Amino acid sequence: MQITKDILEKIKTYQTIMIHRHQSPDPDALGSQGGLATILRATFPEKNIYCIGGPVNDLDYLITMDSVSDDLYQNALVITTDTANAPRISGDQYNLGKELIKIDHHPNDEPYGDLAWVNTKASSTSEMIYDFYHEHQTELQMTDEAARLLYAGIVGDTGRFLYPATTSHTLWVASNLLTYNFDAASLNRTMDEISLKVARMTGYVTENLVIDENGAAMILLTQEILDEFDMVDSETPALISVPGKIQGVRAWGIFVAQPEGFYRVRLRSKGPVINEIAKRHNGGGHVLASGANAKDLAEVEEIYQEIQAVVREFY
């Protein structure tokens, strides 16, 4: 593809490369970011390549971030992975570089960057990074560590290959990554583990989930509930899939109170399109997996009514 050729040529011209991802990272954000950085470090050992983005919370078994001063961004190339819009980029320093490249698999509703490679058919940005390597494998070097990171990203964004975005190509990429020397079984176990308090919160979600007659569901996690279970928002992504495991649930929202007073909204669906709901509420994302924000309980109720409407119309 011409776009990947252009990206590789641009990478070759820079001595310093800063790779960012989205805030509140998931395995694909870190897998694509770290996978790309590891490939480029192996290929261009003379270059200065950094991963930027602040805390990774309980995903530090994948990678941790570098800390750099603003002056290092002078004449640097910035690459973002798995980040649909500029406000979600991890770290304000991204705008200090000379040029910006976007690599992403979310709908390109808010374009940014001097170059953009967006493939909404890819299961994950990690899958795209492997494709980038494979297309230019005569020039780029894969490593065991890069394979581990990219595999983790694919596993994370496909829900262990359960989600509709999983294609035959996705499985082909995963199969190729498994030929490298890393402990995939151990990695899968680590990704699947949850803490005892998250397990207990899972019980709360199951017990208190609101489900209407059509299968539209929601759970409200107030600050009081979070405090009761000694949890913070960064620990709640482990709860996202819980409603979907219940027979009859077709689309759902998880509303998590934030210290600032608003609610983070995580939307998921087994069929009805929910990213349009997210766009109307300061968010966006994939057709079946999106995020939004609700300023108060009235907007929480409004979003749930919209979930109910799309489920009712779909079925």
UniProtKB/TrEMBL annotation:
It comes from the Bacteria. Pfam families: DHH, DHHA1. InterPro entries: DDH_dom, DHH_sf, DHHA1_dom, Oligoribo/pAp-PDE_c-di-AMP_PDE. Gene3D superfamilies: 3.10.310.30, inorganic pyrophosphatase (n-terminal core). Signal peptide: none annotated. SUPFAM superfamilies: DHH phosphoesterases. Residues 234-312 form the DHHA1 domain. One of its GO terms (molecular function) is nucleic acid binding. Residues 17-154 form the DDH domain. This is DHH family phosphoesterase. It comes from Vagococcus penaei.
